[in-house]
Amino acid sequence: MTQRTLDPRAPWVISTHDLGRRPGSMRKMTPVLPAPVDLAVGMIGVPKDADVELDIRLEAVMEGVLVTGTARAPLHGECSRCLDPLTSEIEVDFQELFYYSADDALPGGAGGEDDLFLDGELLDLEPVFRDAVVLALPLSPVCGDDCAGLCTECGVKLADAGPDHGHEKLDSRWASLQGLVVDNKDDQEG
């Protein structure tokens, strides 16, 4: 539980000043914020500085400020089957309680290591958004459910190769005899 000082001008830092500490007070917001850097898993992610559309509700409760919302962001990456570039969109829901102080988190003030706290009247929504998106990203993104992928023998894209694409496979038990075939024209003429 490291307390840091937030920059009120940072895009993901939100002021809760107008809520005060009055339980029941609420405010809705629909900001569009730039995506943070390194928001990806493997082959897909949200591009840095892409527009993230938020629909959030801030509610003052006894212990702190409850943030509930939905975020929509573009995704860019590549198909895990055919390696073609792909683009799509992700929509995630999140909810997090930002405590006023460690005393409000748990009786006796022993806040958990995952608890989030207000910095005065400011809260940083980036870690909440980051966690929600990273958990929702597909580990093996595909350009379509019917993507056939690449040929394991030659690497050609199977969608482009056609239905007759194939490779002759020799039974490994007969492989040592492969070099013994001799083309003898005299045997065929006789």
UniProtKB/TrEMBL annotation:
It comes from the Bacteria. InterPro entries: YceD (IPR003772). It comes from Planotetraspora silvatica. Pfam families: YceD. This is DUF177 domain-containing protein.
